[in-house]
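Internal tracking record. Fields below are filled automatically when a chain is submitted to the structure queue. Please do not edit lines marked as system-generated. If the sequence contains nonstandard residues, flag them in the REMARKS field before resubmitting.
Queue: standard
Priority: normal
Entity type: single polypeptide chain
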Amino acid sequence: MNAFTQQIEFIEKNFTEIKDSSEVVLDLKYSTGDNFMNADVYGGFQRCFLAPAAAKMFQQACSALKKDYPHLQFHVWDTLRPRSIQAKFYDHLAGTPFQNYVAAPHPGSLHNFGMAIDLTLQTRDGQLLDMGTGFDDFRDLAQPKLEEKFLASGELTRQQHDNRLILRKLLEDQGFKVLEHEWWHFNAMAKDKVYGHHPILE
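SYSTEM-GENERATED OUTPUT FOLLOWS
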């Protein structure tokens, strides 16, 4: 049993599942060792869920992707995350220079409410678009707020930036907002609209 399977009835009642489709490829990084924890913290759980409102927004983004970029797919790394696992992330980075990259378990990350999604884009033959960094990269180069600086220095190429902008426009046109220090992370709502108004996965 893991934190997901222990709460699966609650999850299936309160959240909407996101499945592999012609526009979506699931690749849950925290169900592998390929993440900043270097461990499978999801216990092999391979299903993705979002809050219903966020899921509707994402489906609209999928429709836009199909229409405007039929050669591309969304490559999803993370969606709903239990607060108990959020606490492990937070403790792992506490006292390090990277502690601000992980939200405190109280009041919680928007991932804990199914209101955030981590993703990129890939071609239909499975090649990830070059975004300048990979997932869970804590370097400044991953930060959208610093893109102009790195474009000027040449550390971020115009093509890498254009790829980020394609992803950003697809999501932000539906109401998502990119996190200022992670190009792959998008929130469906502002925190004050979520805390106290939507169920959290413990």
